[in-house]
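Q: May I have one protein plus its fold?
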Amino acid sequence: MMNELLWLCMLMLNFGLITLAWYFWGKQGLFIWIAIAGITANLQVSKTVILFGMTATLGNIVYAGSFLATDILSERFGKKSATRGVWVGFFSILAFTVLMQLALLFAPAPSDEMQIHLVAIFGLLPRIVLASLAAYLVSQSHDIWAFQFWKKRFPGPLWLRNNLSTGVSQLIDSLVFTLIAFLGVFPAGVMVEIVITTYLFKLIVALLDTPFLYLALRLRPPEKADTPGGE
């Protein structure tokens, strides 16, 4: 049960930090968090753990939490700001990956002890990197579109558009990543299992972020927030 308790603690900490970033720095704080989440998730995803009897990657919480940040941007400032946040995250992941791949090309000093560990962490196959970037861009773009779509259809219940947009977007993310990364590598049955288990954890995170969305918007009301004209 230790992993499960740590997972819940990380979940609450993740949402709490997003809320604090929004409260203290508004829109810019969310942009910063999206960049942090993109880099952190791509580091944590290299570690697999057992959660509730299933094998899962550790980056799901931080990555799925970035959808809370874009939903806050979408609700308060609209599609333009949320899309900008997505591109901030995409650029951060891409730049970090390129810089670390370049760092691996340097010949280590005879006394160096870190190269082997850096290779183990950052020596990613191009296919995995492509899968991660494609899944991020497609799923986040859908999340923004769907959030605005449901906001126009059902302008009242915030929880409804939050869960409808994020829930479907997380499924798209799992499908795109798995197909690009593992098609032809694993049998179809294994790929289906990967999609189901990955999506299950992301869906749990998506459902649990709803109270924090309400809290974030209450903590920083419109009169204290940046104005859409600040675009």
In short: The radius of gyration is 18 Å. The chain has a mean pLDDT of 89. The helical segments are 2-44, 60-77, 79-105, 115-122, 126-153, 158-182, 188-208, 210-219. The longest strand covers residues 48-51.
